[in-house]
Specification:
Helix content: 10-25%
CATH architecture: Ribbon
CATH class: Mainly Beta
Shape: globular
Largest sheet: 8 strands, antiparallel
Distance between the termini: 58 Å
CATH superfamily: Umud Fragment, subunit A
Number of helices: 2
Length: about 250
């Protein structure tokens, strides 16, 4: 084989790789992006070791829709406002780099306040119903006993949240959500860094929204085993969460 043929093969392979990268980047930027759940802040909805697909088009597109968040335009294109109860991935306001996932509780202009451990939105206490089949959740490397509730947001959207039964956040100041911002909470209320903590997360700008969590496509319990240790998957693989729709 002469040098010209070898050169042509190399060029053809490079072209194929380049086109494949373009297609993969386009899918990731405009349609769906996979994410790994590394923390327990969204238990029991999302568990450590869940792999999820996030739709990038649901709220339109900002610079954070693309790899490395290039400053190619400001604002959002084809913007659709999230609804209360959505699980969203966003870039933390602290560094505009780290991806978090939380639940939208407050929309622009809403007031949110915890009073005696219960949530008030626009001065109205949200409805919640005690659930008895969830007794404990993780918080990092630890496990604590919880009180679990089905909470109903003002738009009728229901979700499960848990509170540490040994002591939980009882009272807060009244948070007023600014224009084009959102107030987000973790479902694991006493193990979540979220909009209650203004110095680290606070109100999330609409530009920082990355997408909406849609489905769990794979899950394994990372405490029981790693996906790299295929011989342990029999113990760690959560088959009941395979392709489970996220609520």
């Amino acid at each position: 084989m002469n040098k010209k043929k070898i050169s042509n093969i190399i060029i053809d392979n490079l072209k194929t790789i380049f086109i494949a990268l373009l297609i993969a980047t386009a899918i990731r930027s405009f349609f769906f992006q996979p994410f790994y759940i590394p923390s327990s802040s969204m238990e029991p909805t999302l568990l450590i070791g869940d792999r999820i697909f996030v739709s990038k088009y649901t709220y339109g597109f900002s610079k954070h829709s693309f790899p490395f968040s290039p400053n190619i335009f400001s604002g959002r294109i084809n913007y659709n406002i999230p609804t209360q109860g959505d699980l969203v991935v966003f870039k933390t306001p602290a560094d505009n780099r780290t991806d978090y996932i939380k639940r939208v509780v407050g929309l622009p202009g809403d007031s949110i306040q915890f009073i005696e451990g219960e949530i008030f939105i626009n001065n109205e206490k949200i409805t919640r119903k005690k659930i008895n089949d969830i007794e404990s959740v993780r918080c990092g490397k630890f496990t604590f006993i919880v009180d679990a509730y089905e909470e109903t947001l003002p738009n009728g959207k229901k979700h499960i949240s848990v509170y540490n039964s040994q002591g939980t956040l009882q009272n807060t100041k009244k948070f007023i959500v600014p224009k084009n911002h959102f107030f987000l909470l973790g479902d694991n209320r006493d193990c979540s860094n979220d909009s209650r903590f203004l110095e680290s997360v606070g109100y999330v700008n609409f530009i920082n929204l990355v997408g909406k969590a849609q489905i769990i496509f794979f899950s394994n319990d990372t405490i029981k085993g790693s996906v790299l240790k295929f011989w342990s998957l029999n113990d760690s693989f959560r088959i009941d969460r395979l392709f489970k729709k996220i609520k």
